[in-house]
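TA notes, week 10

Several of you asked for a full example with nothing omitted. So below is the full record: structure tokens for the whole chain, then the designed sequence directly under it. When grading your own attempts, check the secondary structure regions first.
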């Protein structure tokens, strides 16, 4: 399983999170709840925006939350999620352990020493979901801190 982390910083959010230990328990709980709700909303948005073929990538989008830090995590567990999100350059795959690669093409089996993999554009799904949720998260944090 391959994971990738998209870390996005916001000065208001960073200030709020750095001083979280100074707040009382009720305020801390409200901040944790706001962060956890936003994490779930980001995952929901990512599932709506993700490109689908088989649906495996959409099903692999999961959330996590660590109350000790507090930190929300949205991750896609498929090994190719980062390629869909960020894209990939063109490259050549060469046979390593064997003399040739076996490539299935329309029912025929082709043997080649190498294969050119074309470039693929990224089709982001997690970053746009975060961008849509970030203003709501910041306003919710400000409301909680100003109480």
């Amino acid at each position: 399983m391959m994971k990738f982390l998209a870390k996005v910083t916001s000065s208001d959010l960073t200030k709020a999170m750095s001083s979280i230990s100074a707040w009382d328990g009720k305020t801390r709980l409200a901040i944790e709840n706001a962060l956890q709700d936003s994490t779930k909303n980001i995952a929901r948005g990512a599932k709506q925006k993700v490109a689908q073929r088989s649906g495996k990538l959409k099903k692999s989008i999961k959330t996590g939350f660590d109350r000790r830090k507090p930190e929300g995590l949205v991750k896609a567990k498929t090994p190719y999620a980062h390629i869909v999100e960020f894209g990939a350059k063109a490259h050549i795959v060469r046979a390593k352990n064997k003399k040739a690669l076996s490539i299935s093409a329309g029912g025929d089996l082709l043997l080649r020493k190498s294969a050119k993999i074309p470039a693929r554009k990224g089709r982001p799904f997690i970053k746009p979901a975060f961008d849509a949720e970030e203003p709501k998260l910041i306003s919710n944090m400000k409301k909680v801190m100003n109480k």
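The radius of gyration is 21 Å. Use that as a sanity check on your answer.
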